[in-house]
Design brief:
This protein is an alpha/beta fold. Helices cover 32% and strands 19% of the residues. It contains eight helices and eight strands. One of its GO terms (cellular component) is cytoplasm.
């Protein structure tokens, strides 16, 4: 199976979101990755429900909404209405993570859990049969264009082993610093979804950049 590519719209040209959405529709990208930041859980503010809804009017591929916000339960239904096909929440932001995942599933969406670089995968051990994907942050969340954290490779291998031992079907997504220099190694470690922002939208030919990491 080829790696799924989910370009991060956070790195797109906000003045030309329709143009960039059309480009992704025409490319080999598989998902639209939408980073929602509240300035509280992470030290940055990206965009919210209206922009998400505007992107969904043009996106012809699934919208993967990554909630980097506090108390995400308050907005799950709203993001479904804004076009989300899948939602990932941070384990660090959810004191009742199982309940949050249940809410996402009850809305008919795919559910994911995101983990910051320092967070152990052990918090997922009793959730693997409830979730569809895990988003491993390979940079500290909040800003695009950061340098990839090398310990991510081992974290991915360990998570893949845990998933296999549990007999679960969970995709491993990598978010942060992904480019052509590490895509193959991430796939080899067990990653199945790559989020790429600056690498795609900063490229002279974004479609070619996507094709290059779709291994």
């Amino acid at each position: 199976m080829k790696t799924l590519i989910a370009p991060s719209v956070l790195a797109a040209d906000f003045a030309n979101l329709q143009r960039d959405a059309v480009m992704l529709n025409e490319s080999q990208a598989d998902w639209f990755h939408i980073d929602i930041m509240d300035g509280m859980f992470v030290p940055n503010i990206s965009f919210g429900l209206p922009v998400c809804a505007a992107i969904s009017k043009h996106a012809k591929k699934p919208m993967d909404v990554h909630l980097m916000i506090e108390q995400p339960d308050r907005y799950l239904e709203d993001f479904k209405k804004a076009g989300a096909d899948m939602i990932s929440v941070h384990a660090e932001a959810c004191p009742h993570l199982h309940r949050t995942i249940q809410k996402i599933k009850e809305l008919g969406l795919k559910a994911g859990v995101a983990l910051n670089p320092h967070t152990s995968i052990d918090c997922l051990r009793y959730l693997l049969h409830e979730i569809d994907y895990v988003c491993i942050m390979s940079v500290n969340p909040g800003f695009g264009g950061q340098k990839f954290i090398p310990t991510t490779y081992q974290k991915v291998r360990d998570l893949k082993d845990m998933i296999d031992e549990a007999g679960a079907e969970v995709l491993i997504q990598i978010d942060g610093g992904v480019d052509a220099s590490n895509a193959a190694k991430l796939k080899e470690a067990g990653a199945s979804v790559l989020v790429a922002g600056s690498y795609v939208f900063g490229a002279e030919d974004p479609k070619a950049a996507i094709e290059k990491i779709k291994l």
